[in-house]
Amino acid sequence: MVVALGILAITDLVVGVSNDAVNFLNSAIGSKAISFRTIMIVASVGIAFGAMSSSGMMEVARKGIFNPGEFVFEEIMFIFMAVMITDILLLDFFNTLGMPTSTTVSIVFELLGASVAISLIKIADSQGGFSDLATYINTDKAAEIIFGILLSVFIAFSIGALVQFISRALISFKFKKRSKWVESVFGGLAITAIVYFILVKGLKSAALFDGALSEFVATQPLAFLAGNFVFWTLGSFIVASLLQWNIYRIVIGFGTFALAMAFAGNDLVNFIGVPIAALQSYQDWQASGIAPTEFNMRGLAAAVQTPTMLLLLSGAVMVITLWFSSKAKGVVKTSVDLARQDEGDERFQPNYLSRQIVKFSIVAFENLSKVVPPSIQAKIDKQFVLPQTYVPKSKTQELPAFDLVRASVNLMVASVLISIATSMKLPLSTTYVTFMVAMGTSLADRAWGAESAVYRVAGVLNVIGGWFFTALSAFIAAAIIAYLLFVGKFISLVLMLVAAAAILLRNYISHNKKTKEIKAEDSLRRAESSSIQGVIEETAANIANVVKRSNRIYSNSIQGLSKHDLDFLKKNKKQSKKLATEIDGLRNDTFYFIKNLDEAHVGASNFYINIMGHLTDMSQSLEYIGKVSYNHVNNNHKKLKYNQIKELKEIDIALENVFNSTQKAFEERSFEQIGTVLKSKEKLYDMVSQKINQQVSRTRTEESSPKNTTLYFSLLLESKDLITAMMNLLEQYYAEHDSSITPATIEKK
């Protein structure tokens, strides 16, 4: 068990860093203040420094949740093993979804769930009552954690929004044009907050700062803060004026280092606290010579320093994970996307609650606007106007998600709130604070406009809901695993470890597969050309991909029906929906495409709109064919008759030839070949019409299944619509293409 816990500790470090990297990377990555490589180096140094300066006092794991004197060695080991297995699986689950959650909350509720399960077994054996649970469990700590969650979510969001509103109202989006003293005062405030954060939260127990400095910080915080503010403000003014350094970039780099260091120094307990407590418990038991079912674990209540070598190794694992974990980047992306300033593809779909919150907020804002004098409101609105520098939609991924001012406020406010909570000895999750501050600042910065508010609010609600799901699932899962380990002993342990390894492997494979799908070559690309010939050339790859995928989806629908294969049809239905979603994404960019055009090439917009309409018609027909085929088999209706399948296969073969010829024409940019494809139009129409007539005759004489008849007619009619849409598309290209004209493209700005 000790060896297994050691391996689980390394795994937990990997999944833990993948989750918590969002705490210190989102502001730097989102603002693109410094290069990604520099961000990673700064964060790595912060992690290494934090791990080395960590006190290693694993109080929560040893005695924070349960009273160790009430348990024997065997029971403690079952608790620790259940906690580690649950923690790894839970964090990996959230990482795979790309959702940030709290490692502090997960470890606390896992310890609580596992210890409650073992305690209830002991109470049952001694014929005690449920009230005896208070003897074994530190219930006050759990209640304090829950209160801390609710409080931190509300306070972090509110303070983040308030500070960002004030900062933006004073500095505006044109912060580069402001005088140096404005930048210097802001830098002085931000760096002072971050320095205080480092001393109070990051290095509060490090030997490096023991003595006079730490005593002065603790006893005279206001004097320390005032002195720092003056020093850093003057320093910022000097480097900004003489060296022309950007103070905002310095604040972001410094803040990233501080939060990374605090994460390693304080959250290390969440990953290695339990295994180290288990190792020290094992060493105490081994030295005692007492049976594991009798050795009392009251020794865990004593303070024990964690070996420095273990902390260094842990820091190394964390740094390596930070550089190589694709899941860490996925979790960071969720946070950055929800906070970005521009409009774009939204990951989360709106729900009833998000819509109601947005409606309520609009009404509240309108009522508040009536109270504020129009002159003041106009001045404030002027500060929130974004600079009018238009960039093509496809290039927005290369732009910062938000500017340097917001990134600096994110780091400054998060640092201050965590520092205050730590000095007051309040439980606080760094994940909750950093995420909710980022959401609050994005709201205050008017990043959640009418076009995106319901999606962003839905995303925040999903993340917050995930936090409470973390607490509940951590408690229940750890309790169940602890019970199974207690009952099954060695057999349960082996089965649990094998199951955990299998789940982690499956998630890893699934995540890699999704990543590859996102990067797949046949994903559709947005057009940037400004002329019809440019759009024809640029969209050719898109059309070839749509045709290739349409061919596959249509053939798979017929094949799935012929075999009555539900799983096959389900996958095919997902593929048709994915294609429809991608084409919808292209249609949503019509606004940005038209904005790029000059007067000389306005005709390209009509061509683009028509092309999008034909592609949409094709995707809708394919989506309908995939859906009705799946529903027919899923509802256990009769199989289609042999003649029906045979006729559908004939259409499929004819369509496949057309699809292949079309794909080749677009891939080779040989648009003259389209004329040959168009000649098959009437032949395809006649074939489908013939099948319809044959089915009408069968229905009148021999057909006995209404469901089969309905499905068959639906497939034929949608096939006809699919042919119509594709032929219209080809006619558009064939009519507009002119090889003698050089395609015009949008001038890069």
TrEMBL record:
Protein's UniProt keywords contain Transport: yes
InterPro entries: Phos_transporter (IPR001204)
Compartment(s): Membrane
Sorted UniProt keywords: Membrane, Phosphate transport, Transmembrane, Transmembrane helix, Transport
Membrane disposition: Multi-pass membrane protein
Primary localization class, coarse: membrane
Superkingdom, natural source: Bacteria
Family indicated by similarity: Belongs to the inorganic phosphate transporter (PiT) (TC 2.A.20) family.
UniProt protein name: Phosphate transporter
Organism: Flagellimonas okinawensis
Origin organism lineage: Bacteria, Pseudomonadati, Bacteroidota, Flavobacteriia, Flavobacteriales
